[in-house]
Amino acid sequence: MSATTESVLLRLDDISLSFKGVKAITSISFAVKAGEICALIGPNGAGKSSLLNVINGVYQAQSGSVSYAGQTRRRMRPHQAAERGIARTFQNIALFKGMSVLDNVLTGRNLKRRSSWVEQMLRLGRAPREDDEQRRHAEKVIEFLRIHPWRHVLVGKLPYGLQKRVELARALAAEPELLLLDEPMAGMNAQEKGEMSQFIRDINREFGTTVVLIEHDIGVVMGLCDHVVVLDYGRKIGDGTPEQVRANPDVIAAYLGTRRTRTERH
Amino acid sequence: MTQTLPQALLLQAETRGSAIALRYKRLGIWHVRSWSELAEDVSRLAAALHQRGFSRGDDLLIISQARSEALLLALAAQWLGGSVTLLDPELDNRPLLTRLKPAFVLAEALDAVQQVRSIDTPPRVLLFLDGRGLNTAEDRALNAYAELSVGVTTDAPAPVSDSAATAFVFHPAGLGQPQRLSHGQLLDGARKLVARESLSASEEALAARVFAASGQARYLLAPWLSAGFCLNFPEALATRDTDRRELGPTLVLGTRESYARLEFWARERLPLPGTFSHRLYRWAMVPEVNSVRRWLGHWLIRRPLLDVLGMSRLRVPLLVGPALSPESAEFFGALGIRPGNWQEPSTPRALVDAPALLISQSV
């Protein structure tokens, strides 16, 4: 997909990544426009999660560069990514199970605090005012994602679908410009997927947050996303609108599958 | 004696201006409005509605859950001599909306706005409470409730004083005749209820149900303005059980279904049958003349259960519509809660297991 330079929020240029000689990602380039919902799709092992990890600095690519908000960096640490407005959720839920929903969401506000740990411990100086402010922000997110009935419930006691929503809330609490969602609908039933899709659409529309997500459900991807990047064996095989990707013969062959002809079968 | 609901509001603002009239929860925090603040809010909203062309005889249609904003705007419309039609946002109101062709509408959120937009005749004023998913640029009639009073410079006219003016209109399911309740009818009924149940300004009432039932207006709104107690709004329908626990209301209003839902909610959390805890529960819930057993049952089981239900301070449980099922009546009766309706006081000794008349038939 072509994207003009000024509207691009994220650009990956010739990214390659390997683990002890095993190539996970090979020379991948694509751009994500500000304000769009972009899906990374592909079979298991295609390199989708690795690519997400490269974007937010968990993995450092062996070659290539990542440009984010106009700045190109060879290397970016996860905390730098967070400071620059990139938040993410994980394939396997990574919440504090022994903490309440509210406390989990508040952890997403840590980078917004300016008071020192001494002030926070003794509730002096900026800390009390900041506590109120962080709570207000967290509550707005909690209400937005409709998890207020479980505000004070321990996360470990919540069903899986709600835990996924709490994880999304924690990421959203950081007020990100770019939200990376690693299989946000994995393990959900159709109704839960529908709700989660609506929340992602609402986040994108109401806050203008750019979203890059990994999802296996093609129906969800085609209905939700503006832009789809298709990976297969660490290579990009498709990049465009859902309609363009749907019509791409390489994608059909590699990801959606093709019906073999009679001569091929015999 | 006050003749209309807005006059009753002004009287409360004069006599107990600083007392809490409304309590509502936003973003996890309880907020309060005193009677004088509430009267000012309603007056300002009335001025804003008046500026937008709402006048005596007009009807304001509200499609919303029980929310303080909906209540304030309803009072503002009644202040101007208009009536208020209340609809349940959970229902498909499109056939009714097509028939009514409302000119002034308050819709809670996107779903309700879409219902209003589906009719051929668009309203002159369409207000919304929650703007999520709405594109206000595409509809000039669409305005946020929060911005209604912005730029209003004139004062509201004097509040309506005609007790025969219609305050609320309720539309039964199907195509039956609408039920109109005048200010006078509501206040007369409220005074009777206040006297019968000895309601005072110290009551804490919970308004958890959707406003689209006449019982809300009769049992809760009119008595609230008449007795001057505090009306509490939960954060959302989904949080009403938690909010009830936090508040500990002394007056609640429910239907057979809402009491049954609460009973089911409580039973789901009981210890498993066969366990010692479950046997203790059953032992404590049996009506018993033995004072020791009654005392122990109260402190070991019934009192903690009432705390969990948020009913430990409950004094006046009211019922709208048919009587409770025998199971629900037995459950709540064992806890000392015997919801009464218009004909039956709320605290009789006998269990309420006989069919009761509908509220709509009762006054």
Q: What would your notes on this structure say?
A:
The complex is a heterodimer of chains A (266) and B (363). Chain A has 266 residues and is α/β, with parallel strands linked by helices. Chain A folds into 2 domains: 1-85 and 177-266, P-loop containing nucleotide triphosphate hydrolases (Rossmann fold, 3-Layer(aba) Sandwich); 95-175, no CATH class. Chain A has helices spanning 48-55, 78-83, 101-107, 117-122, 127-144, 160-173, 190-207, 218-224, 242-247, 249-256, 262-265, and strands at residues 8-19, 22-33, 37-41, 63-68, 71-73, 86-89, 178-182, 210-214, 227-232, 235-240. In chain A, strand 1 (8-19) and strand 2 (22-33) form a beta hairpin. In chain A, helix 3 (101-107) runs parallel beside helix 6. Chain B is built from 13 helices and 13 strands.
Give unreliable regions of chain B as ranges: 343-363
Q: Return residue spans of chain A where pLDDT drops below 50 for at least 5 consecutive residues.
A: 260-266
CATH superfamily of the largest domain in chain A: P-loop containing nucleotide triphosphate hydrolases
State the helicity of chain B in percent bands: 40-55%
Number of helices of chain B: 13
Note the total helix count of chain A. Answer: 11
- Give the strand line-up of the largest sheet of chain B: 7-6-5-3-4-8-9
Question: What string, H for helix and E for strand, traces the elements of chain A in order?
Answer: EEEHEEHEHHHHEHEHEEHHH
Query: In angstroms, what is the radius of gyration of chain B?
Result: 22 Å
Helical content class of chain A: 25-40%
Morphology call of chain B: globular
Number of strands of chain B: 13
